[in-house]
Design brief:
75% of the residues lie in helices and 0% in strands. The protein is an all-alpha fold. The two termini are 38 Å apart.
Amino acid sequence: MGFLTGLFWFVVVIIASMAAGWMFRAAAVGISPRGVAKELKTAPLTASFGMLMILIYIVVAVFAPLIAPFSETAIVGREYQPWDSVHLLGTDNLGRDMLSRLIYAARNTVGIAFVTTALAFGVGSILGLLAATVGGWLDQILSRTVDVLMAIPALIFALLLLTIFGTSVINMILVIALIDSTRVFRLARAVAMNIVVMDYVEAAKLRGEGLWRLITREILPNAMAPLVAEFGLRFCFVFLTISALSFLGLGMQPPTADWGSMVKDNATLISFGDITPLLPAGAIALLTVSVNFVVDWQLQRASGLKE
């Protein structure tokens, strides 16, 4: 009976998600310019649902102070208070409102993950395109340096660097950006290596185009599709890394709300059958799946494949 009940609710959630995706796609097509609306019409329901969830996360992150019923750090009740009409998701191990901290954590976790991904992507893609275009000794030096960094497991490397340099937010952003830029470098270099041998690139070289113009006008536009898809995937990995570091105590530090640390702080409740610690974990999983839905759609568009 329990299995059938769980299966029933699973089917209900899937149907509701697809219905929400369909309604969001219909609304987006209706208010978008003609060119954008044409592209949105081709979006599968999974991608539409992903875009809806991403939009909700952005709204919650931007307007967190207006949406949250309590302050991020205010102690408003006793420890591990059950769900009620005042504290809709109960309170945490210190008596802070769980719903409010979930909302503020969207701003902290997602915002920092986006900044970190942008930094890693900027450094990695520029160096990767530069290595492929220039070649020679510059390509060898950058590639071998990246090989050395990638030989170290990412999470262990991050833990080591944060232990040495401290666990401030700035250090965390720089450390994760350094580690993830190596992955972006390898992709950007691999894509650019297939482009620099094309005839139109050789023609640009014969015209006397400078290095910067060659990269920005000839190579980057033709490498944009896989790089954009990689940005979405890299955001997911950075997002999960920040949550993992916070769970281990080396990410965002108290009293800043973060989904990873919220799981750790309230894990005791799982022993009593309380699902409250699973809520921040669910927020992490939902955003990761939503971003991947949109990335899959973009990869399909870039490849030219049809269902």
